[in-house]
Design goal:
9 helices; alpha+beta; 309 residues; single chain; 17 strands
Amino acid sequence: MTRLGVISNARSWRNRAGASPLAPAGDGVLYGAPETLDDYPHALRRFAEAGVDVVAVDGGDGTLRDVMSALPWAFGETLPAIAIVPSGKTNVAAADVGGVPPERLAALAEAVGAGAELPAQTRRPIRVEAAGAQMLGFVFGLGAFERATRLANERVHSRGFAQKMGVALGVLMAGAAALGKDRDAWRNGVPLALSIDGSNPETRYSFALLATSLHRLMLGLWPFWGTGEGAFDVTEVAAPPRRLIRTLATAGMGRPPSWAAEAGYQSHKADRLSLTIREPFIFDGDTFVAGPDGRVELTAGPEIRFVRL
């Protein structure tokens, strides 16, 4: 029998704000509420042994990352579909592939139990290897993107703003900081060595780097314009950024001006990104470090099907 498994994160933004983690939605539904990162693989292994075909993820982008990262260990090569129950601060992935509102979980359980064919989209998350660990997620960034995310967590999300409003306020606040009294700290960038699809590594200071395998981001932003057949998009801006406001006004919508390349703005479709960095990076909303050797590898992960009602 087709079965639904529900993974609920009690620390996600919606649940911390007062909503209770999702309770079991009826017969034939398994439920797990991991308390630590190490609990995710074991909860998902229990789902795999029970024959779960769809995993509902009640949480934000970080919870989704932790679930996807544990899926190959728990399920092997045949991965279940995922239904996102968007409960995080931004839910970028759900904005792209769709989700299931918490109040519709029972309807999802009924549809999955009946073997109904649900609307679905397929995505390949980015596999990030760093500090001896592997993760699967959708949005990777460093430099100004890491600073902006940290700023949003400290000054926007902490005040209760989330979803599109939180993203909009975060963008505005980051822009003001990058042009304000601390602009030198932003504009000087971070040192890195960068290789795309096996090219010779280039060592330089980078203002910002952003990569995703999603097909759209929030607020209509899409700072990518590379062409080709690569599995994910990556844009990098050299430091210090030149003509920043004029370029981002159009490049943020995927329409860079003619001078973008000569001003240090590059965008690619890639299958592999190799980095050596000393500064922290952001992966699906959370901060990570590269480890003692500074090496970070981005490659295409397995195909995962995302269902919705």
